[in-house]
Specification:
single chain, 500 residues, Immunoglobulin-like, 1 helix
Length: 500
């Protein structure tokens, strides 16, 4: 009984100490003369690298602390041992094909692991500068620099590329047992970034090697300025294009007279204002960085000739307010919109207002700058058609505003319910009709009305309403639309806040 138990315990605990190979490194294959790693358990009872005393002259050690490795029955030199990893040199020469790998320690031999031998099986060990420091994001290579690549499993001939750039091979060959050295020159025309180095050894591609490359920053180079054409009275956001522009410390104009640079010229964008009477013609701009001064980039100053290309709308009815965008060229310095004749018409921001008594006919619209006036564009005032919607008197508009503790301006992002009464002269205003409200000095609000139970009473939601006062009343203009989208006459009222 005791003998059987001893045999069982010996089998269990003895097997636990036997070396076991879980994985042979280097991908799917190994090559003669290449360094590989074996991973597993119980591969050694100690951890160390080879020492001088382990060598027999120039002959590499094939046993360290009783650990040996055989590949296809041939003893393999060892450089490092530990319980979980062995670094081993594949004997050379060695026939290609599937071969067994075994590890033997004082406690026994492992079961064989199988791997494939092929003539070349390249892997990378290191990429270093001439001073021995590793090529890394903190110490990148530079265009034109010669760096040294170390690998194993390589063989001549060797070719290399960095993406589409061919790489010159300065040297390629064995410089130690299993150590293949490749000296390459980084292309001079490559830019900064993380690049993939591809190397082929005897026609077999090595794994891609990621290289950090940093081009030395030289003086800034300007390739474009946008816009490059400026007119009197214009304030433009200027954008510079080029290289080496990340640390601009100054922007210099060849002739700064009547030109005003905005704040923060320390990046690629800034504002430029051209004052009236600036001398027309070409000027240049340069930028300065810690690396030097850029080449000059030209731009043009013009007097500017305002022109109207279109009016929308070009036909209007009396007694209404219309959005009135004016499309044109060289409009930067416009200070006034002139209407001839001006009877019963005025401009309110981006809107044109016509009194109910505005005479029909042609109105000439011109853009005026301090130094020029545009040719006229025609705006036709015609009678409103008989079926146009019409509204009568408006009651003052009230806004229901809750929380009387809130003071200050209305939020432009909040919505408010507004109620008013109106007279529908022709019965054209239906539930859901579109409404436009213009508050002088603020942006307009538009929406659809909800007809309430009381005849001629409507409610709609006001958006983007902001005033410095919170009570009112404020002057307001209301326009309603029929189902066909025809614009009613515009009536003035007031708007106030009801605190609740």
């Amino acid at each position: 009984m005791r003998a059987a138990l001893l045999l069982l315990l010996t089998a269990i605990f003895g097997a636990a100490q036997t070396p076991r190979i879980d994985r042979v490194s280097n991908g799917d294959a190994i090559a003669p003369g290449a360094w590989i790693s074996l991973y597993g358990a119980n591969l050694a009872q100690s951890t160390r690298e080879w020492r001088t005393a382990d060598f027999n002259g120039a002959i590499l050690p094939t046993a360290l602390d009783g650990v040996t490795v055989r590949i296809n029955g041939v003893s393999a030199p060892l450089a490092y041992i530990s319980p979980t990893q062995l670094n081993v040199l594949v004997p050379s020469p060695m026939a290609t094909g599937s071969v067994p790998v075994t590890v033997t320690t004082a406690l026994g031999a492992s079961a064989p692991a199988t791997t494939a031998v092929q003539p070349v099986a390249p892997t990378w060990l290191a990429a270093v500068h001439a001073n021995g420091a590793s090529v890394s994001p903190s110490e990148p290579a530079a265009p034109g620099e010669q760096i040294v690549l170390y690998g194993s499993g390589f063989a001549a001939p060797v070719t290399a590329n960095i993406d589409e750039f061919p790489v010159a091979i300065q040297f390629a060959g064995l410089t130690g047992p299993g150590l293949f050295q490749i000296n390459v020159a980084i292309p001079t025309n490559i830019t900064s970034g993380i690049w993939d180095l591809t190397v082929s050894a005897a026609g077999i591609a090595a794994p891609r090697l990621r290289l950090s490359i940093q081009a030395p920053e030289g003086p800034p180079v300007l390739t474009a300025i946008t816009p490059n054409d400026f007119i009197w009275g214009q304030t433009a956001a200027v954008r510079l294009s080029g290289t080496g522009l990340s640390r601009i410390t100054a922007v210099t104009l060849s002739d700064p007279s009547r030109l005003v640079l905005g704040d923060n010229p320390g990046n690629q964008g800034f504002q430029l204002t051209v004052e009236g009477n600036a001398t027309p013609g070409q000027r240049t701009l340069t930028v300065t960085t810690p690396k030097g001064v850029s080449n000059p980039i030209p731009f043009t100053i013009r007097r500017g000739e305002p022109r109207i290309t279109s009016l929308t709308p070009s036909t209007v009815w009396p007694g209404r307010i219309y959005p009135f965008p004016i499309n044109g060229t060289d409009t930067a310095g416009v200070t006034n919109i002139e209407l001839t004749p001006p009877t019963g018409i005025r401009i309110i921001g981006g809107y044109i207002q016509l009194d109910s008594a505005t005479p029909t006919g042609t109105v000439q619209v011109r853009l005026r700058t301090p130094w020029d006036v545009s040719p006229p564009a025609s705006l036709e005032v015609v009678p409103a058609p008989a079926n146009a919607p019409a509204i009568g008197a408006l009651t003052p508009i009230t806004i229901s505003r809750y929380n009387a503790n809130i003071q200050g301006a209305f939020s432009e992002r909040a919505d408010y319910n507004a109620e008013f009464e109106f007279t529908d002269a022709n019965g054209d205003i239906k539930n859901g009709a579109r409404v436009e409200m213009l508050i002088e000095g603020t942006s307009a609000s538009s929406g659809t009305i909800e007809l309430l139970a009381k005849p001629g009473t409507a409610r709609f939601t006001i958006t983007k309403f902001a005033r410095s006062s919170v009570s009112g009343p404020f002057p307001v203009w209301i326009t309603l639309f029929d189902e066909a989208g025809n614009r009613s006459n515009t009536l003035q009222s007031t708007i106030s806040v009801l605190w609740q």
